[in-house]
Structure formats: C-alpha cells, structure tokens
Amino acid sequence: MSNASCPNVSRCPLYEEFNLSASLRTWQIRYCHADFSRCERYRRHACGEEMPSRLLPSGEMLPEKKRRT
Ligand code: SF4
User: Quick check: CB of 42 below 6 Å from ligand 1?
Assistant: First the structure.
C-alpha cells in the first residue's frame, strides 16, 4: 500500500468528477489518496492500455449521468 497520492491526479478526468459528489469522493479516499496502485485506471495508464472514460478504480463502470429535465 502506498501513502502518496496518485501521480495521475492532475490529468485523470474521473478524479475531477469525484470532487463533484460526496458519494463519489470515497473513490479518492480509497484509491487516489491511499492505494492508487490498486486502481484499474492507474494500472491501464501505466501499461498504455485502452481506457474507457467511465472506468472506475475498481474496474467497474461509472453509470452515465442522468440528464436534468
Ligand atoms: S482514479 Fe485512479 S488513476 Fe485516477 S487519480 Fe484516482 S487513483 Fe489515479
């Protein structure tokens, strides 16, 4: 387990999205600022693999945002 923040914080679009929601912020706590080496996004970035835009650190997909009416 790493104690440093993820080196991708400044360029990871999901990191910014996590800032917008208290429920999503738990991803930052559990991965971005705690154990980024377990993050599927971090792993794929390091390996140069395809990166779906909605890929969560766990490897699941973040549901699309609901449209405001
Ligand atoms: S979601 Fe993953 S790749 Fe993005 S900043 Fe957090 S730990 Fe890093």
Answer: yes
CA 53 to CA 3: how far, in whole Å? 26
Q: How far is the CA of 22 from the centre of ligand 1 (A)?
A: 16
Amino acid at the residue 8: N
Alpha carbon of residue 27 to chain centroid: 7
Predicted confidence (pLDDT) per residue in 12-68, tens digit: 999 999 999 999 999 999 999 999 999 999 999 999 999 999 999 999 999 887 555
User: How far away, in angstroms, is 67 Cα from ligand 1 center?
Assistant: 25
